Structure formats: structure tokens, C-alpha cells
Amino acid sequence: MLGQLDLASLGVALSLVTLSMTLLLSIAAWHAGSDKGLRHWAVGNFALMIGLLLNVNQDLIHHSISIVLANGLMTLGLGVTWLGIRAFKGTSQPQAWPIAAALLMMTSLWLLRFQMDSFPARLGVASIVLASMSLLCARELLIPAEQPLRTAYWLTGGIALLCAAGLSVRAAFSLSPLAPITALSDSPLQSATLLGAMVAQIGLASGFILMTHYRATMALHRLSERDALTDTLNRRSLLRQATGVLTKASEFDIPVTLIMMDADHFKRINDNFGHQTGDAVLCHMVSRIRQHLRTDDLLGRFGGEEFILVLPGLDTDSAAQVAERIRLGLCSQPWQTGGYPVNLSISLGVACSDQQGYNFDLLLGAADRALYQAKALGRNRVELAGAPENDRKD
Length: 394
Fold this sequence. Notes:
The chain is an alpha+beta fold and 394 residues long. Helices cover 67% and strands 9% of the residues. A five-stranded mixed beta sheet has the order 2-3-1-6-7, sandwiched between helices. The longest helix is centred in the middle third of the chain and has 38 residues, at 188-225. It is elongated. The model has no long low-confidence stretch (mean pLDDT 86).
């Protein structure tokens, strides 16, 4: 069936697909701004398909171009695509590797065409090199990742892996007795190459755009949930996640403790050192707090220099020990600016569901009253919220 396909029509279809996918990736790269990867993929896709178009027209173009240069362009295109994947992931991009692979491909094919003239050897070498480059792309993508980006990674990586498998089969075929001695323009191998290239091109381009879309979506979602300065949960996100934690804990009767924290005399820091130093001190404060947290603890910025910490599974005594370690850790390591230390202390109010129940507002109110008491008693201390009736008397 593959041998009966019109290669001229397949060539035209491949040209249109090449133009469409390259244009699509170029437009996406233009609008992506500083987003890395798309420009590499647009250039790589174009080089790959130009090389393929030259290669399938060996009857019309000199073999130094349709074999040597064409396979070099295909290798370079896959190499640039691999660089784009690494750029997208934020890892190093060794520029010399794709160039070296392309030069190796061109040198080998020049020898195998104009010195030895062995078609099976050329077919095997070209297939192995291209399969290796496809496998490198698949290796970069078939990794654990956060959803929904993992879906796009695995889809694109799966397509690259299928390309590597198909090219490996092509290399194995070159070693079999069925392999032709000379290239045939109307062979099923050429038809399969064109069809596979078109399907892979559409799949890879779609996968790359999906990767970019999902990462942008995740970035927007993160911005909607995080405080821009400290990268802690913002007030709305903290309320939503803490309510979920409290609901789940109430089902299993697990204690949850809420700690409200406030930097002492923070206005003095802003007045004496400036707001930029004040922002840096807040970030320092958050980094010190995080050193005492577990993976399932919640830390959010409630407003200004006030932060809330939700500790699932800890009762009042255990949470009070965590609060004291946070207080001591912050006091023992001041922020340094211009060689001068900026001392910072913190007051903390602790309220537990054992006494206040599993309602976020009740826990917050009790922790707020305990924090106020810590401020009234001299600051730089931890105070525990009492029973609701005692809080009302106080």
C-alpha cells in the first residue's frame, strides 16, 4: 500500500505541513516574549523538514545536497529541537553538540556516497544518528513533572520516542537482506519516511505548543495563589487551603494548630533603612520560618508583616515548640545590609483545634488574641490561646 502512494503528492503535502507548523511555532514564539524554547523549535522544525524535502528528491538534486547536506540539516534540526527542550526546562544548552552531530553525519555520508557508495550503509548510519537525536529529546521529556505539564511532556516525549523507534527499525532494515542496494524513489521506504515525518511533525509541534500553554497556565495559577514578594500563600489561597485541611482533619479527629506571627517594630526598619530593606527583611523572615516547616504545613501572608502558619497533626504543645524554634531562629540570625545587622524579632500567637474547634475563623480569632497578648507583654514571645470562655474574659 505504501508503495502505491503518489510521492509527488506526499511531497507537496509535506511542504504544506512544513510551512504550517513552522509558521505556527514562529507565531507562538513571537507572542511568547521571553519564554524560552519556542524559537529553537521553530528553527529546528524548519531545518529538519528542509533536509527531509531535499532528501526525498535525490533524483532531481545532486547527492552532495540531497544526501550529505540534507541529512546534516535533519540532524541539526533535531539537535536545535533538543536545545529548545533544555532551554524550556531551564537547563544548560551545549551549542556544540548539535553542530558536532551534524558534521559527523555529513562526513560519514560523504565517505559512504563518494568514496564507498554503499546505500545500506548510508541508510543505517543516517537512521542511527537521527534515532539517537530523537532519543535525546525523548529522554529530556519523559520525566516526572507537575501536572498538567507532565501530560504535555509525556505526549511530546512519547512522539519523540516513537520517532526513535521507527528510525531504529529503519536502521535494522538496512542490515537485512531485504534492503535495496540503491535508493529507489518510489519505494515503500520513501513513502513511510514521508508519512512518518508529517505525523511526527504535527505531533511534536502540537506537543511543544501544549507545553508552553500549560506552563503559562501554571504560572498564572501560581500568581493567583502566591504573594508576589515572599512567595507564600496569599490570603485568599490560604483561607481555601486551610479550610480544606481543617475539614479533612475533623473527619479523622486530627489536631490542627494555627500560628499567627507578626514582626516586631517593623515600621522602624522601613523608616530607618527604607522599604527595599524592609522587603528584603520580610523575605529573610520567611526563609527562616520555612526552615522549621514540613511539606504539608501551610504558610501564608495575612497582610503587611503578619503571617499565618497552619500545622496539621500538631497539638498546642508541639506547635508551641515549633513557634519557639521559629522565634529563636529569627532572633539569632539578623538580616545583613551594607555590613550592618538589621535585628528582627517576632511575636507569635498559637491556637489549636483541640480548644477552638475546626473553624478557620475561630482559630484565627483565638490566635490573633494570643498574638495581641504577646505584643502587650513585651513582644518577642510566644503566647498560647486559652479556652474560648477564658479568651472572652481576658
